[in-house]
Write a structure and sequence with these properties.
The protein has 382 residues and is α+β, with helices and mostly antiparallel strands. It is 30% helix and 22% strand. The chain folds into 3 domains: 73 residues, Uridine Diphospho-n-acetylenolpyruvylglucosamine Reductase, domain 2, CATH 3.30.43; 113 residues, Uridine Diphospho-n-acetylenolpyruvylglucosamine Reductase, domain 3 (2-Layer Sandwich); 160 residues, no CATH class. It contains 12 helices and 17 strands. The strands form 4 sheets. A 6-stranded antiparallel sheet has the order 12-14-13-16-17-15, sandwiched between helices. The longest helix is centred in the last third of the chain and has 14 residues. The mean pLDDT is 93.
Length: 382
């Protein structure tokens, strides 16, 4: 197996998409298969090393960055399909959703948990943060779409265990950011690809009217509603729209939405997909993911009052404010507000190194309890 401890690899593997400054000496391992993963873990345990797993480093909170006395296992070669039938598929953790759905498309099948970063989003990372994204209205989070997982853990005697768990028995792994063990493969549930979709695409001159429209859509409780997104004017202009608020409503039928032309629908979603890179190009590179529900309007208005570009999955209460490097205090203020409004500092991206300081004492104690259950020797970084 390949391993590296030179300055260049040390720099690369101390970097991810989080903008978190990290500089720890580490050794990087690139296993080609599960047997090499097991061998690396066995050696790390013998040498009293901590372990952190990663692949392309696209995560946004520093949860794949090494700490002191930590080795890095790059799992990007574990990207194979192991088994498939009409209702499920078993995959290794670093297959991307684009690769998965490209294969499934041949059989008119579909894996419905889709991210804007679908080209680089890997199944293992999506499980480890229990990702949802825009179609969570209809399909909820990853936990609903994983039937079982084969997981490597290390018990209190430092013995390696490899077991297959159903999703309920391994529910802690859906948000643990690889901090409890290593997911070697996962059996995913599949559905038939939707036959048709339609969109309603509205713009508004002010936020109150946009939010009133959102509430009117939610009140209808349409079972075919699959996505409900909002974009504020700063970002609208960055993706070549008018200086207004935009709301995207998607239905998995051809009747409820106002737009049915496939090319027009594709163009609208392309603008929504462009929100993140376009906002980064405005020099707001740090994307956040607070989750609120009843008070989401307060958070949205706070962003507006502080000139923070924001968009997000308005139905499930996850917003994506963007900050620049000079707005650290504003970011702290935002998360203080989120805590005051009683919800979560992370709706999608996880906690990692970046958000640990925003956790409540109660949340920290919950983590300690779960670590004691699965990783009492604190071998996996968390």
């Amino acid at each position: 197996m390949q391993s590296y401890n030179d300055p260049l690899h040390n720099l690369i593997y101390n970097t991810d998409a989080s903008h978190f400054e990290n500089n720890e000496k580490t050794e990087v391992f690139l296993p080609k298969n599960r047997n090499e993963v097991i061998e690396i873990v066995e050696n790390a345990v013998k040498e009293n090393k901590k372990i952190v797993c990663r692949a392309w480093g696209t995560n946004l909170v520093g949860n794949c960055l090494p700490s002191k006395n930590t080795i890095v296992i790059d799992l990007s070669a574990l990207n194979k399909i192991l088994e498939q039938n009409a209702s499920s598929i078993t995959v290794e953790p670093w297959l991307t959703t684009d690769e998965l759905n490209e294969i499934l498309d041949k059989y008119d099948l579909y894996f419905p948990v889709q991210l804007w970063s679908h080209a680089s989003a890997q199944i293992g990372g999506m499980i480890a943060t229990n990702w949802a994204w825009m179609r969570a209205i209809k399909y909820w989070k990853m936990e609903k779409w994983v039937e079982e997982m084969e997981i490597l853990t290390i018990d209190e005697n430092k013995e390696i265990k490899i077991q297959t768990f159903n999703a309920d028995d391994a529910k802690d792994f859906f948000w643990a950011e690889w901090g409890l063990g290593i997911i070697l493969n996962a059996k995913l549930k599949l559905i038939k690809k939707p036959e048709s979709t339609s969109l309603t695409f509205k713009n508004f001159d002010n936020l109150d009217n946009a939010l009133m429209f959102v509430e009117s859509v939610k009140s209808k409780k349409n079972s075919e509603l699959s996505a409900l997104e909002i974009i504020n004017p700063q970002i609208s202009q960055a993706v070549w729209l008018e200086n207004k608020y935009y709301v995207i409503v998607e239905y998995e039928n051809s009747t409820d939405g106002e737009i049915t032309d496939k090319n027009e629908i594709k163009e609208i979603w392309a603008k929504r997909d462009a929100c993140y890179p376009a906002t980064v190009n405005l020099w707001y590179p740090q994307i956040e993911d607070p989750e609120l529900h009843e008070n989401i309007d307060e958070l949205f208005k706070w962003c507006e009052n502080n000139n923070i570009p924001v968009y997000g999955h308005i139905w499930i209460g996850v917003l994506h404010p963007h900050f620049n490097s000079e707005q650290k205090e504003l970011m702290d203020d935002m998360y203080t507000l989120v805590q005051e409004l009683w919800w979560s500092v992370s709706g999608e991206h996880g906690i990692g190194k970046k958000k640990q300081k925003y956790l409540s004492d109660e949340e920290k104690n919950q983590i300690k309890v779960i670590k004691e259950k699965w990783d009492s020797n604190d071998i996996f970084w968390f």
